[in-house]
Amino acid sequence: MAGRLLLRACTTTAALRLRSSALLTPFHRAVATQRGIPTDEEQATGLERRALQALKQGKDPYSMLKPKTYAGTKEDPHIVPCIGTKRLVGCLCEEDNTAIVWFWLHEGDAQRCPSCGSHYKLVHHELPH
């Protein structure tokens, strides 16, 4: 007898809980379906958020994208970013070459590789922070 009373009490309280949560469920479902799953921009924080905002504006603050390819001619030289006025550059003159030709590249006009003749130009680059 006591077991039946206890079982009846448990089912009554469970039914009340279900009824009260059933009143709130449609509201929560409506809110969830309107917003959907948050996007990367909504969830991102810190450096990731800064990078996503910059990429949306068309900038590449941390050089994450593949650099543009250049012909290496005098009119279209390879661009070398630098924060100073000169930089040491290594050129692989041939595709399967194992020796690297090193030379200093100075700010100003495009300069040639002493071995193969490819042109390189130093461009001042600001740090992202």
Number of strand elements: 5
Can you tell me the residue ranges where pLDDT is under 50 for at least 5 consecutive residues?
none
Structural class: alpha+beta
Shape designation: elongated
The share of residues in helices is 25-40%
Please give the count of helices: 3
**Overall mean confidence score, pLDDT:** 79
Order of helices and strands: HHHEEEEE
Percent of residues in beta strands = 15-25%
Give me the side-by-side strand order of the main sheet.
1-5-4
Measured distance between first and last alpha carbons: 75 Å
* Biggest sheet layout: 3 strands, mixed
* Gyration radius, rounded: 32 Å
Describe this structure in words.
The chain contains three helices and five strands, in the order H-H-H-E-E-E-E-E. The model has no long low-confidence stretch (mean pLDDT 79). The radius of gyration is 32 Å and the shape is elongated. The longest helix is centred in the first third of the chain and has 34 residues, at 2-35. It has a three-stranded mixed β-sheet with strand order 1-5-4, with no helix packed on it. The chain has a two-stranded antiparallel ribbon with strand order 2-3. It is α+β, with helices and mostly antiparallel strands and 129 residues long.
